């Protein structure tokens, strides 16, 4: 029987639509140029994409760990599927892009039509990475997304030309190395499959059936892991992030990189199942580096004088906690790590947007030049504060239960000392985020302003769209915390099935 050129489990190719709709929307926005309707069209497309993401979550059987909704186009190597983990990350990605389209309206950035088109293409690339089960498609979609983010950093940066070039250059240097490492790992896996079966394949299911062995699996593990660790980012491969955060775009580009942690998703989807022996062998090595990263980044955060750089080290510190949960290879640790990733992504995005609103008013993010902002823009300050509480895992936020799952799994797998040390690192993170909030929003205004006795410069009041952006982000964070079991149900079956491969079921 002749194989059909395109097959799909559902009558309507939902996953293909999820990837193609932003591309079609970007083409329409680009054709409309800089007319006001272009931005409106882009915003409508983002909301429809969110609706498609909800449809994916409703069609996925959350009780099954199997990849579902399969779609194939063999001629192009296209193979997409989804499980509960995919559904959760797709929902997060679509929500963050919706918030970006609203945020862009408030910020009034240059050439909003072109910016909206780039955001939509980046969303399509992001969705492709989340639904594909083909490693080559995953790498190519990642290349497209990172290239677009580099353009955003270079063209829409708030810094001088020299600083903008520095940030863009550093970004492309690190990400190019990461993509090359990722490509090397993919080629080793595909070569191993070809050696065993006589044909090349980059498909997850094919590679699991005929995995590489011995030192070749170890090489594939390190190449894949380090390639994904660069973009996550994980200590000590985080050197690009402080420059990009400080000298690049204030919010949109960092949110595309940090809001949805594709590196963590890639580790769970590809690295752990395809290199299980190497993962088990080098598990303690990875966790040890991650523990160092928790404290190293936290200590450096206390030394920062710029709010954007401080947030970059907060990301590195908390990413290390996620990796510790992932490499417990325990059902609770895996589930907790995935939910922490989603929690940190949304919380960091909310904080970045609030920093963008502050920058629009003050034209600075230097902590020494901020202060006294709570009495003038209390809603923005409160949203920043709630985002910080979510990152440190306060009760009422999804980070609270997720962090407990990670720590419980770490206690069972590694013992009391490493777990207590990790918990202390999280407490340190709480300290520097609260210190940043105090410096920027609660502390008295700068001395050079008070010395003259002049009235405080008048700041624009919080706009309705700022209320909408901040309110939506905070509402989702709180609802996710209150209904934590709903999200846990999505990731738990996949976490249990993966842990079973390592004897932790």
Inertia-based shape: globular
Count the E strands: 3
Order of SSEs: EHHEEHHHHHHHHHHHHHHHHHH
Distance between the terminal alpha carbons, to the nearest Å? 40 Å
Summarize the main sheet. 3 strands, antiparallel
| Rg measurement, Å | 22 Å
Secondary-structure map with pairings?
Blueprint: E1 7-8, H1 14-32, H2 36-59, E2 68-73, E3 78-82, H3 84-107, H4 112-131, H5 135-155, H6 161-197, H7 204-209, H8 214-231, H9 240-247, H10 252-258, H11 262-274, H12 276-302, H13 307-326, H14 331-362, H15 378-391, H16 398-414, H17 416-442, H18 447-450, H19 464-482, H20 484-500
Antiparallel strand pairs: 1-2, 2-3
Describe the structure in your own words:
With 505 residues, the protein is mainly alpha-helical. The protein has 3 domains: 133 residues; 108 residues, no CATH class; 216 residues, no CATH class. Helices cover 74% and strands 3% of the residues. Strands 1-2-3 form a 3-stranded antiparallel β-sheet. A hairpin with a 4-residue loop joins β2 and β3. The protein is globular. It starts with 6 loop residues before the first strand and ends in a 5-residue tail after the last helix. 55% of the residues are buried.
Entry summary:
The protein has 505 residues and is mainly alpha-helical. The chain is built from 20 helices and three strands.
Based on the model shown, name its key terms.
single chain, 505 residues, mainly alpha, three-stranded antiparallel beta sheet, 74% helix
